[in-house]
Write a structure and sequence with these properties.
By secondary structure, the protein is an alpha+beta fold. It has one domain: Nucleoside diphosphate kinase-like domain (Alpha-Beta Plaits), CATH 3.30.70. The chain is built from 7 helices and 4 strands, in the order βααβααβααβα. It has a 4-stranded antiparallel sheet. Bound molecules: 2'-deoxyadenosine-5'-diphosphate (DAT) and magnesium ion. Homotetramer. One of its GO terms (cellular component) is cytoplasm. It is found in: Cytoplasm. It catalyses: a 2'-deoxyribonucleoside 5'-diphosphate + ATP = a 2'-deoxyribonucleoside 5'-triphosphate + ADP; a ribonucleoside 5'-diphosphate + ATP = a ribonucleoside 5'-triphosphate + ADP. InterPro entries: NDK-like_dom, NDK-like_dom_sf, Nucleoside_diP_kinase, Nucleoside_diP_kinase_AS.
Length: 141
């Protein structure tokens, strides 16, 4: 396996609940290197590009609204196998069924909302990682 980069988002619920440190600690404790990090409120353009694959799904509008509602933290992490490795640290999409020990399983829960709020995003393939890094950190070599 070769060194990879992945794009991680600490979503607005992670920022609002002051879980940035806890989540970044888990990424670093696993041995991944954080090579870029920026907190900002996402623009509609960034979110439309980031979530293009979900356009047309019932949760798309609430997803984009939630992701743009408050600041998030965009992170690039590096390491061998980091794309799969961070998805494993994050746990499965729904925090109710995400395994204990994972970020979503330990720190998340479900709410009666039209979109699942689950603290983090992680790229799901090398192609997604390259595309998403260019959205959040344009021009990053
Ligand atoms: P993941 O973030 O685990 O890669 P995804 O790419 O399928 O999941 O979906 C993006 C986000 O959209 C996900 O983190 C939470 C939300 N979401 C996904 N499926 C949903 C559903 N069935 N109902 C509500 N929100 C959903
Ligand atoms: Mg996804």
């Amino acid at each position: 396996m070769t060194t990879q980069r992945t794009l991680i988002l600490l979503k607005p619920d992670a920022v609002q609940r002051s879980l940035r440190g806890e989540i970044l600690r888990r990424i670093e404790a696993k041995g991944y290197e954080i090579t870029a990090l920026a907190q900002r409120t996402a623009t509609a353009e960034e979110l439309a590009a980031h979530y293009a694959e979900h356009e047309g799904k019932p949760f798309y509008a609430p997803l984009v609204e939630y992701m743009g509602s408050a600041p998030l933290v965009a992170v690039v992490a590096e390491g061998e196998g980091v794309i799969e490795g961070f998805r494993s640290l994050a746990g499965s999409t729904n925090p109710t069924s995400a395994a204990p020990g994972t970020i979503r399983g330990d720190l998340g829960r479900e709410w009666d909302l039209p979109v699942i709020q689950n603290l983090v995003h992680g790229s799901d393939s090398p192609e997604s990682a390259a595309r998403e890094i260019e959205i959040w950190f344009p021009g990053l070599a």
